[in-house]
Task: inverse folding
């Protein structure tokens, strides 16, 4: 039995190696639809020029790209190399990812444009506009504040691929909390390890969800760790 098991493992390793090599040698090119090319931010003919610029003048390239974002305070230096290898990008600058992703769009024609299209396993669809997402993220940011979460605190996200995961991440960004996404398939023990490593003060999860026709219970795993709804003390012991 041991010899058979070893042979089986060897074949598995060889098979995985062949798959990896095949992927590395992938030579197919998938062309986008003509309409996507027309609406693209970068013309395909300009791609090589942009690539050369990025390689020849890194700071000028990224400095120009960063101008597409809103900055509350302009940076002093695009790339601070004074403490290499601990580089600092856009030193002295101040921005907010949630503001750039949501807030600035709700002041324009994009306010009522669809930002997220979600289709569940059952086929049910949900659409969220920029304004829907903006309101939901603001509400969640206030929920975090009501729970005592402050700027710099860590929040663990233990959610499936649902629209709320974007709401939670953006809500964290709005009030300065740091989010850590934990893969939904991890066990309770793996979840605990990641909570401890991140020093998270809060875990955001769901009671359950559907995957491959089965109901996956998530809140049960959280309770295995002794976590209580709305209680931060169990994460601080």
Result:
């Amino acid at each position: 039995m041991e010899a058979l098991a070893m042979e089986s493992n060897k074949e598995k390793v060889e098979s995985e190696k062949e798959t990896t090599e095949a992927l590395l040698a992938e030579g197919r090119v998938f062309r986008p639809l003509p309409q996507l090319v027309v609406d693209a931010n970068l013309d395909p003919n300009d791609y090589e020029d942009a690539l050369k610029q990025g390689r020849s003048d890194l700071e000028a390239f990224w400095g120009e790209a960063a101008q597409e974002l809103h900055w509350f305070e302009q940076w002093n230096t695009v790339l601070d190399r004074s403490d290499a290898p601990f580089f600092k990008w856009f030193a002295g600058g101040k921005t907010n990812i949630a503001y750039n992703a949501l807030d600035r769009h709700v002041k324009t024609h994009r306010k009522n444009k669809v930002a997220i299209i979600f289709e569940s396993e059952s086929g049910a669809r949900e659409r969220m506009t920029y304004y829907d997402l903006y309101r939901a993220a603001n509400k969640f940011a206030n929920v975090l504040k009501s729970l005592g979460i402050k700027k710099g605190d860590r929040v663990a996200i233990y959610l499936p691929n649902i629209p709320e995961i974007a709401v939670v991440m953006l809500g964290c960004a709005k009030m300065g909390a740091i989010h850590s996404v934990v893969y939904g398939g991890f066990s309770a023990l793996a979840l605990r390890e990641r909570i401890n490593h991140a020093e998270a003060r809060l875990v955001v999860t769901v009671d359950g969800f559907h995957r491959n026709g089965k109901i996956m219970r998530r809140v049960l795993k959280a309770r295995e760790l002794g976590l209580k709804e709305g209680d931060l003390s169990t994460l601080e012991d």
Q: What stands out?
A: The longest helix spans residues 2-24.
